[in-house]
Fold this protein.
Amino acid sequence: MHALGGHVWMAQVDGPASGVMMIPIPGRGGIYRGVEGIGRARAVADIEDVVITAAEGQLLIPPPEGSTYLGFIFARGESAEAVERALRRSHAELEFHLATALETLRPSI
């Protein structure tokens, strides 16, 4: 509200707690090949959505060298603790497939 020229007391909070997880790149990163478990991740209680922003074939490098994430998980619940729990459970349902640079150079057999 302050950035829009309003007063902070004018702001309204939508629900008791909400949160977002920026889905981290696992390990040393690699070439994005896909993800499994999005349906299960979205089915976790208090999860509003799971959005994967990585594109197939994209080189993913974890921070601090890299500057992207695999995507985002959004949650809303009764407490901050419930939201954090939901985000962690949802993330645990996701299985990302990353190839190393060497794996992309090997011919398929």
